[in-house]
Amino acid sequence: KEIFEEVTKLGGKCILTKKDHKTGTDRIFEAYEELRDDSIEYVINLQGDEPMLDIEDVTNLLKKTIKKKSKISTLACQIEDKNFFVNKNIVKVTTKEELNQNNLSVASSFTREIKNTQKNIYHHIGIYIYNVSYLEKFVQLEQTQNEKSQKLEQLRLMDNNIDIDVGLAKNKPIGVDTTEDYLEIKKIMEYKN
Questions:
Q1: Using an 8 Å Cβ cutoff, are 128 and 155 in contact?
Q2: How far apart are CA 3 and CA 143, in angstroms?
Q3: What mean pLDDT comes out for the span 88-96?
Q4: 170 and 61 in contact (C-beta within 8 Å)?
Q5: What was the pLDDT predicted at 72?
C-alpha cells in the first residue's frame, strides 16, 4: 500500500494486486488482465529484488527477444566469485550455448545449487520478458513439484517443455537476497544521492 501511494503521489501508474498469488508471474498476469490492451505484445516482469539492474541491459534483452520472437526471455551474467556456486540465495542458470553480447541461448536448467564443473553456468538475474500468449499459458499451468521444491517459478515452464531464452547482461547487478545485500545496496544508493 505504501508503494502504491508513493508511486501515485509521484504521478506514476500502478495496480494493487490480490495477496493470494502463488508467484510473481501470477501477480503480473492480474495486472496485465486489468490493463487488457490488445496492442501489448510483451510484458516485462522486473523483480523488485533487482534495484540496480542497468536499463541498457533491459533494453538490449527486449530488442533481442523481439528479433528472435522469443516466448520468454531472461538475463544472466558471468559468475566471478566461486562462492556463488554454493550460495542457495543465488539462482544459477545453465544454457545450451555459451552466452555473448550478440546471442540468446535456450536455458538448460535453473537451480540454487550446482557444481562448478558444468559448462555455460551463469548467475540468473530476476527479469522476465513474456510474449503475452505465453504469459497467459504460464498462469494456466499447474505448479510443478520441481517448481515448489526449488522455489523457482521458471521451472513450471521448463517442466512443461516451454523454452526460456537467456541473454547476457553487460553489467552485474547486486540482487537483494539477504540482509547483507540490502545493506550494501542501501550504502550504494545513499552514496549516489
A1: no
A2: 28
A3: 91
A4: no
A5: 97
